[in-house]
Amino acid sequence: MTLSTEQNEIVITKDSIRIVDNGKVKYDLPHLWLRDNCQCDECRVVESQEKRFMLSSIDSKLMPVNVEYDGEEIQLRWPDNHETIIDLSLIRELGRKRKPDWKTWGVNFKPSYFSWQEFITNDSKAVNAIKEFISSGVIILSDAPREPETLELLSSRLGPLRETLFERIHNVSVSREVYNIAHTSLELPPHNDFASYTWPPSVQGLHMLENECEGGESIVVDGWALLEKLRNDHPKHFQILCEFGVPFREFDENNETYAIEPMIKIDSNNIITGFRFSNQLMQVIDPTRKKVKEFYLAYHELCSRVLSTSFRSVFRLEGGQILLVAAHRVLHARQGFVPEGKRHLQDAYFEMDNIVNNIVVLRRRMASHDG
Ligand SMILES: [Fe+2]
Ligand SMILES: [Zn+2]
Known about the structure:
The chain is α+β, with helices and mostly antiparallel strands. The chain is about 25% helix and about 30% strand. The chain starts with a strand and ends with a helix.
């Protein structure tokens, strides 16, 4: 059956409604989709806008008994007389981005600095900083308090702290107990923290309280950019790093963390969503496993690229500065330093989901203030 308006027409097939615009199919909307997305008060929980209708309550071969279309709104009547109105703006809205895309770093990239005070107190400055953080994966907050536990105060912007074993807020200074190379003055190669968790913390805040030591420059590496280049140059290496589970462990007398996971995570569209790299936490791989040779060749290439200077930015993190890194993307490192003088760093973790969604909340709040 075909219904026509001025330039548009719709074609009703046995399993969908096709919206044709100037001779081209613009949308092919399955009947099940149309029924499932009914926006009426019966099919939604009015108070919360949650979906209430459950698809299994209708037949999978459902077809509308009547359809009307005015070029913008589809009105449907179903065999049980239920009526559904779908406004095409509902579909257009779905194309709106919730967050900025990630961008690789240009040549001589340096992280952007944002004032701590403004980040905490000014919603629009916070939104700008968070957008930069999402797109580049790294920012620095300057002029933050030099008090211990200051990272707790970031919760108002970044969501709750993601706790891990060891400490809620980790202290990194040479005088501390050593369960990790970070607690020495040795050079620390690029890594992300807690590769030994199945889901490592996705955001890390590194707060420099005091830095009076010579050396110890901070290094950040754009892991995803490096992996994109690897995928392009050596697709087979990239592939095995997506598949081969690697054991990682971090532990002390009272704590134990351990996970076997591939170093690269990609989603169903082959987009990189995670990079796991920690030479210090990597454990012995069972040599009787299949493809150990292939993995090692790929890992060798990966290590050279992680240590190359192509994707890194080097700077000195001063007392009162907080480095925020998107930890599933950006690796952090530190040059060796002379352990004379005070150097005290604290770090804590957050989750990217909370940060990304906080932009929506902040924008909503700003819009309601404007109005
Ligand atoms: Fe670290
Ligand atoms: Zn309904």
